[in-house]
Amino acid sequence: MTTLGDLIEFQEISELKARYVRALDTQDWDLMEVCLAENAIAWFNGGKFTRHGRQAIVQFLREVITPGFVGSHIAVHPELTLTGANTAKGIWRMQEIAYFTEPSPALADMHIVGGEEMRGAGYYHEEYLKEDGSWKLSSIGVVRIFQIIERKPARADIELTVEPARGMRR
Amino acid sequence: MTTLGDLIEFQEISELKARYVRALDTQDWDLMEVCLAENAIAWFNGGKFTRHGRQAIVQFLREVITPGFVGSHIAVHPELTLTGANTAKGIWRMQEIAYFTEPSPALADMHIVGGEEMRGAGYYHEEYLKEDGSWKLSSIGVVRIFQIIERKPARADIELTVEPARGMRR
Amino acid sequence: MTTLGDLIEFQEISELKARYVRALDTQDWDLMEVCLAENAIAWFNGGKFTRHGRQAIVQFLREVITPGFVGSHIAVHPELTLTGANTAKGIWRMQEIAYFTEPSPALADMHIVGGEEMRGAGYYHEEYLKEDGSWKLSSIGVVRIFQIIERKPARADIELTVEPARGMRR
Fold first, then answer.
1. Separation of alpha carbons A38 and A50, rounded Å
2. What is the ipTM of this complex?
């Protein structure tokens, strides 16, 4: 039932998702803006952090993903469906690993004082809108399977090296 | 040498694999049944756990992947080949992470008493059968590269949060 | 803007990348040779380890990825571009996990004495060349987002099992 036309759209949506996680983990907020539709909705952590509109979402991400947040998010196993001429939806398995090198006021209830490691897995639940020939995220949410926080006393003898360019070529 | 027809079959097999890992980690056994051909064969852990037939495989998975098994399996890097009009085979790199929140009698020789973390990587070795237009797993095996078990004394200062919906929207 | 022809090339480049990581983690150096163009350039660790030519690259990898290096590298989120009739370039998010079961003289400045765990994430930056109908890596580099080394004292109560076949069927 899959058509060749579907494959092209799925490829372009996958490239959008690649840019999204690159924006997140290289902390490239200009790139993040290009990934989001103007009226996008985000509901992270199962809806605990909900934001409406591209600017509010980027502002929220900047508060959480600070320079002291050193992480890698990946999204695999897409299950995508075209829902109209310019709309699509889908889910992706998410896995994240992050190290905190300083306190994180934005994640107050996680009590991040610096030195913690966080790992998690779950699903991205997303909707997409094609505008002027480019797919954008119109809705993005995350529901986790699990999240684990490992705190400092158990993390002796651990050396973390952070590349300032975060994976990009200078 | 790859044809457009190949791309469509590879896409549909990739979607099957996405449903398989979703069934596994959300513990959705009805979905797992739909992923397996009726006469499927499974040989997990390099053949230590071999089961014949869809029902026996699902029964085995239910015994191992209990509510106290909190995990995320991902399969990436497919190397797929069509072997006939309705058959295919392939390998995928597997990575798994799991936390045990209670004892696991089914994994007796791993001595899981609760509190352990398991991580592993390896390859899925698979065969596929297309029935009534849908790809199913007709054979699935795993050979690991490594498996690591980290037990409780080393896992102080660790907080695990499990989402009851395991990544799905309620 | 993506064409069906692009999809076929992207599929074949993705299969090349799958073979590359399989060669790396199963330590199959014959397979690695087939992945590399004769005049390939490699610059690992942001350029610290630079090698010119297929033979020098394979030689370097054999020195680092010894039997005591037990690892899994994955590459996801490709962002690929065709740059000519037989050339392409792209980036992939890299994630690695490795255990050292013995000292590693080749990684002298990491002070690997055996018992360490290394995890990292970053980006592969690659160029490709199509020769006789097959894509090869003509340039491969890695810039990390982070790298973490966890040393032995913190790694008590940990059991590592290595499969001699490293994921392959014997």
1. 15
2. 0.93
